[in-house]
Design goal:
It contains seven helices and 23 strands. With 537 residues, the chain is mostly beta strands. Strands 1-2-3-4-8-9-10-11-12-13-16-19-20-21-22-23 form a 16-stranded antiparallel sheet. The protein has a three-stranded antiparallel sheet with strand order 5-6-7, with no helix packed on it. Strands 14-15 form a two-stranded antiparallel ribbon. A hairpin with a 4-residue loop joins strand 3 and strand 4. It starts with a helix and ends with a strand.
C-alpha cells in the first residue's frame, strides 16, 4: 500500500506541472526577441536571431526536444527564472572564437553568486507522447568567502597571475556546492525493440512506455576541474501493453521485466573532470595598417570532459529486478581557430587570382570582415547654391587585424555501460542500454542503424566528429561511429564492433549543437537518413 500511494502521489505531481506553468510570472523576454522578431521579414540576420531567441531566451522559450526519437514532431515550452542563475558544475558552452574579448574561463562574477533557479517544461508530440518536468536548483547558504588563487606559470619576475574564486576552507573554486530537486513524467507511445543481444534479428516491434521519476542531486566541486556528485531518486516505470504483437512475441525469458514493473530506488555517485587548455602564440608587435606576414596565427582550445558514474537500482517489491551499473562517458575535443595577423584590404583581395581569392573569401567568411561604409557628401550647385541630390556609398570588406576565426570542432566521444545483477536477479529490458540511432534520452551512437537497434546489459561506442559553422546557426558535420552491445564484457571487443560513417547538417543555438540531420553508410543496408534533437530545456 505505501508504494501504491507513493506512485499516485508522485505521478499526480508530474501531471500538475502544466498547471504550475501558468502560475509562474509572465515576464517580458530578452531584447533579442523583442527587437529581432518585429524585423523578421526585413533582414535575414534578424530572422535568424528571432528564431534562436524563440528557442533559447529566458524566461520563456520553445523546445523541440525531450520526446524520445520515433514519436513524431514534438513542440513544447520552457519557463525558468535565470535572474538567479545556478551553476554548481555545468560545462560552459564552447568558447566563441569570434568573440573580440575571448576568455577561456571567464570570472564567476557574471553569474555564480545566485541562489535559486526554478524551471518548468512541458512538451507533446504529434503521436500523443508527452513530457513534463519541473525542478529547483539551489545554492545553500554555506560560508563561502571571496578569495583569489594563483593561475598559470610563474612569470620571469617571479610573480603569478591570480583569479577570483569562492573560498571554503582550503577549497577555492569558481563553482560552489549545489542541490537540485526535480520531478518528471514522460509518456512515450513508441519505443522500438529488436530483441536482446548483438545478434538480434532486424525485426522491429514497438511498445509504449510510461515513467515517473524524481529526487535530488548534490554536487560538490573540489577543484575547478574536479567535482563529485550524488543522486537519490525514485523511478516508477510502466509498460501499458496488452494484446499487442510485442506481448505475443516476447516473454519474461526473452524480455525480462515484461511481466511486471516494480518501483525502483536509484542511487548514483559520480566524479566529473573538465580541463580546457588554450594554445595561442604571442603576437608580435605590428602596425595594423601595414601588411605583416604571416597571415594567421593559431588559436586552439583543447577540452577534456570525462565522467564516471556508478548506479544502484533497487527493486522495492521483490528484489528480483535489482541491479548495478557502471557508466563512463568522455568527450575529448579540439576547437580549431586562428587570428588574422595580416591586414588585407578588400580592394586588394579583388585583384587576387581565382584560387587565392576563394581562399581569402573563405577566411573572411570564417573570421568575419569589417564592412566599411564610406559616404561622399552631396555636391552643391555653384549657380543656385542648392544641395545636389544623391549620395555615393562604397563598401570595402577588409580583413581586420586580430580578427578571430572559427574553423570548427573535432570531437572524440566515448561511452561504456556495464550492468550487473546478483544471483537470481535479472535486468529489466527497458532499463538496458541501447545503441543505434538515438536512445530514449536522445543520445546518439551508431547513426547508420535504426533507433534502439541493439540492446543488452553491456554497451559501448565511440564517435569521431568534425563539425563546422557554415552560415548563421547552420553547420556541417562529418562523423565515424563504432560500437556494439554484449551480454558480457568480452562481447564488446574491438573485433566485434559495428561501424558506420557519414555526413550531415547541424543547428546550433547559444554556441551548442541542438539538432542534427545526417546520412550514414556502412550498416549493410544502404544509406540511412536520420535526425536527432539533443535533449535540453
Amino acid at each position: 500500500m505505501p508504494c501504491r500511494f507513493q506512485r499516485i502521489h508522485i505521478r499526480s505531481f508530474a501531471l500538475t506541472l502544466a498547471g504550475l506553468w501558468l502560475l509562474l510570472p509572465n515576464t517580458v523576454s530578452a531584447q533579442t526577441m523583442k527587437y529581432s522578431c518585429p524585423n523578421f521579414f526585413a533582414d535575414i540576420h534578424q530572422s535568424l536571431d528571432c528564431i534562436e531567441a524563440l528557442f533559447s531566451e529566458t524566461p520563456a522559450h520553445l523546445t523541440f526536444s525531450s520526446i524520445p526519437p520515433g514519436n513524431g514532431m514534438a513542440l513544447g515550452g520552457v519557463l525558468e527564472d535565470k535572474i538567479h542563475y545556478v551553476s554548481p558544475f555545468a560545462p560552459r558552452p564552447d568558447p566563441d572564437l569570434r568573440a573580440g574579448s575571448f576568455q577561456l574561463e571567464p570570472d564567476f562574477e557574471a553569474g555564480y553568486k545566485s541562489l535559486v533557479h526554478p524551471y518548468v517544461t512541458v512538451s507533446g508530440s504529434t503521436n500523443g507522447s508527452w513530457f513534463a518536468s519541473g525542478g529547483l536548483d539551489w545554492l545553500p547558504p554555506m560560508h563561502y568567502g571571496a578569495g583569489r588563487r594563483f593561475v598559470g606559470p610563474v612569470r620571469p619576475n617571479g610573480s603569478r597571475a591570480t583569479k577570483s574564486c569562492h573560498r571554503l576552507g582550503p577549497l577555492c573554486t569558481q563553482s560552489v556546492f549545489g542541490l537540485g530537486f526535480a520531478g518528471t513524467h514522460r509518456s512515450v507511445q513508441t519505443v522500438s525493440f529488436y530483441g536482446l543481444g548483438p545478434g538480434s534479428p532486424n525485426i522491429k516491434y514497438t511498445y509504449p512506455f510510461n515513467e515517473t521519476y524524481g529526487g535530488f542531486t548534490a554536487s560538490m566541486p573540489v577543484f575547478d576541474w574536479l567535482t563529485f556528485s550524488g543522486q537519490i531518486e525514485n523511478r516508477q516505470p510502466e509498460l501499458p501493453v496488452a494484446n499487442s504483437a510485442f506481448n505475443t512475441n516476447f516473454t519474461e525469458a526473452t524480455a525480462p521485466g515484461i511481466a511486471s514493473q516494480p518501483d525502483f530506488m536509484h542511487y548514483k555517485i559520480a566524479v566529473k573532470t573538465l580541463f580546457r587548455v588554450l594554445s595561442e602564440p604571442v603576437s608580435p608587435d605590428a602596425d595594423p595598417t601595414k601588411e605583416t606576414p604571416p597571415l594567421m596565427k593559431r588559436r586552439l582550445v583543447f577540452g577534456f570532459l570525462n565522467e564516471a558514474q556508478y548506479h544502484w537500482y533497487s527493486d522495492l517489491s521483490t528484489g528480483h529486478y535489482s541491479f548495478q551499473q557502471f557508466v563512463f562517458s568522455g568527450d575529448e575535443s579540439i576547437q580549431l581557430g586562428s587570428i588574422i595577423e595580416e591586414y588585407v584590404p578588400g580592394t586588394r583581395r579583388s585583384t587576387f587570382p581565382f584560387l587565392k581569392r576563394a581562399f581569402y573569401d573563405f577566411i573572411a567568411h570564417s573570421c568575419g570582415v569589417v564592412d566599411r561604409h564610406e559616404k561622399s557628401s552631396p555636391g552643391v550647385d555653384p549657380v543656385t547654391g542648392k544641395t545636389l541630390p544623391g549620395e555615393n556609398t562604397r563598401t570595402s570588406n577588409d580583413l581586420r587585424v586580430t580578427s578571430p576565426c572559427d574553423f570548427g570542432k573535432l570531437d572524440l566521444k566515448t561511452h561504456l555501460a556495464l550492468s550487473h545483477a546478483s544471483d537470481g536477479s535479472v535486468i529489466p529490458f527497458y532499463m538496458q542500454p541501447t545503441i543505434g540511432g538515438s536512445d530514449i534520452d536522445s543520445l546518439t551512437s551508431l547513426r547508420g542503424f535504426a533507433d534502439y537497434r541493439f540492446r543488452a546489459p553491456d554497451a559501448t561506442f565511440l564517435q569521431l566528429e568534425y563539425s563546422v559553422p557554415i552560415w548563421g546557426p547552420l553547420g556541417g558535420l562529418l562523423f565515424y561511429d563504432a560500437g556494439n552491445v554484449g551480454q558480457t564484457l568480452s562481447g564488446l571487443s574491438f573485433a566485434h564492433l559495428r561501424q558506420d560513417a557519414g555526413a550531415g547538417a547541424t543547428v546550433r543555438f547559444g554556441g551548442s549543437v541542438v539538432a542534427q540531420a545526417y546520412l550514414a553508410m556502412g550498416a549493410g543496408h544502404g544509406v540511412h537518413l536520420g535526425y536527432n534533437l539533443v535533449k535540453f530545456f
